[in-house]
């Protein structure tokens, strides 16, 4: 029996060290996110020229939504040249015709297995490369805030080749939408602002991002069927030694998921992508670190992070198991400290405007979200055979611009 307890204890200590790494990583970058970030360029200095912008919106079976958001993008005020192109995957002929009648470009695509990365690559191969300097990527439900493209232009004038805007919630009309909005802002603070404050690359988020046109086409070559094209590009960019700028005050409004079913679908795709890149790049991480590429190694470390809702659930479980009477593994104070550290990292990552009653009420739905995460973890194989798109609802595009 003592040998069995020893083995159990060793396993629990190993798990504890792994979870300690998770907590310290989140806490470190959560604190770093409160350090001042140097401006990309002097605000009083106007760019010498305006980049020619190509706004790309992949639309997968989302006719009603794209008929709202594409015209809103078309109306976006930008002093330079800008053209909106919808990448139509499964849109109805009537939708395509209506978009074209509004002088919105439409590139029709069809795949055996649809992915956003492949759709974007086809668009870049179809459009005349000499016509654009910058490609901006929006999700089908996204709406750009006033001045977004102007700030993107400023970043490119400062010399950046890849830029990530501040994606934020367009709607908080259900408890799960509120939780999703909180998760978005925590990600922004830790993986974008926290890294940018230390002079590191911000993480891409899949939309509200802009690329030097030719470089974007290069990044998407052989992108394949991955459900996480943004993460693949993350690795390729830091391997190239290119810095990703973050624009914390330049917003793109994004629709948040309405219920636990949509939450499960979305997280299934995210977890599948994380596991894919953990497997693909784990051993290359130390090699790149040895070569001096710490940012690549950091991206690999991110693939080791347990999703935060699962982290809270696992730490709570181990805390209960470690209560007096349990003879193996770290003491109760260890697990309590990790749980407290996780909670602190999340709380200090939330913007002040989210300390409100609505968020407090949504927190009571965390156990349901935890259950949905467990289901998502168990069905990650689905992401290999299906696109698993997040469902979208129509919303007034203008209402999103606060």
From TrEMBL:
<feature type="transmembrane region" description="Helical">
    <location>
        <begin position="309"/>
        <end position="326"/>
    </location>
</feature>
<dbReference type="GO" id="GO:0016020">
    <property type="term" value="C:membrane"/>
</dbReference>
<dbReference type="InterPro" id="IPR050321">
    <property type="entry name" value="Glycosyltr_2/OpgH_subfam"/>
</dbReference>
<keyword id="KW-0472">Membrane</keyword>
<keyword id="KW-1133">Transmembrane helix</keyword>
<keyword id="KW-0808">Transferase</keyword>
<protein>
    <submittedName>
        <fullName>Glycosyltransferase</fullName>
    </submittedName>
</protein>
<dbReference type="InterPro" id="IPR029044">
    <property type="entry name" value="Nucleotide-diphossugar_trans"/>
</dbReference>
<feature type="transmembrane region" description="Helical">
    <location>
        <begin position="362"/>
        <end position="380"/>
    </location>
</feature>
<feature type="transmembrane region" description="Helical">
    <location>
        <begin position="332"/>
        <end position="350"/>
    </location>
</feature>
<dbReference type="GO" id="GO:0016757">
    <property type="term" value="F:glycosyltransferase activity"/>
</dbReference>
<keyword id="KW-0328">Glycosyltransferase</keyword>
<feature type="transmembrane region" description="Helical">
    <location>
        <begin position="6"/>
        <end position="31"/>
    </location>
</feature>
<keyword id="KW-0812">Transmembrane</keyword>
<dbReference type="Pfam" id="PF13641">
    <property type="entry name" value="Glyco_tranf_2_3"/>
</dbReference>
